[in-house]
Design brief:
Elements (H helix, E strand, L loop, with lengths): L13 E3 L6 E2 L11 E4 L5 E2 L13 E5 L5 E2 L7 E5 L4 H9 L2 E4 L8
Parallel strand pairs: 1-3, 2-4, 3-5, 4-6, 5-7, 7-8
């Protein structure tokens, strides 16, 4: 799935990333309405500005299931990151100043 493929998709509110793609490309969800996403453990990297660089209307909730999933300078300050203790995502979210919660607290309602 390519660069900017969900750019400005305001009606896309929730997503569960598939296990067949191991990268979330640059600007993939930029300028859209994404509120929640689940990222499986097979995802190795979340590229730069995958979720955009603008101020969100509300916080975006990102649930990262893997220990080694890495952000490439792409964690928005407006993000709430749900992840495993000691994971790469937890360390990077701390450095970015994002709000962090244990993965067990993530709720993905329909």
């Amino acid at each position: 799935i390519g660069y900017m493929c969900f750019f400005a998709c305001n009606n896309l509110k929730r997503a569960v990333w598939g296990t067949s793609c191991n990268t979330i490309e640059s600007s993939m969800f930029e300028n859209g309405g994404l509120e929640k996403i689940i990222i499986p453990e097979n995802v190795n990297s979340i590229r730069q500005n995958a979720f955009g660089t603008f101020n969100f209307r509300s916080k975006i909730e990102i649930a990262i299931l893997g220990m080694k999933t890495a952000f490439w300078n792409s964690i928005p300050r407006e993000a709430i990151v749900y992840c495993l203790a000691g994971s790469t995502a937890q360390r990077q979210a701390q450095l970015a100043g994002a709000e962090i919660h244990p993965l067990s607290e993530f709720i993905f309602e329909n």
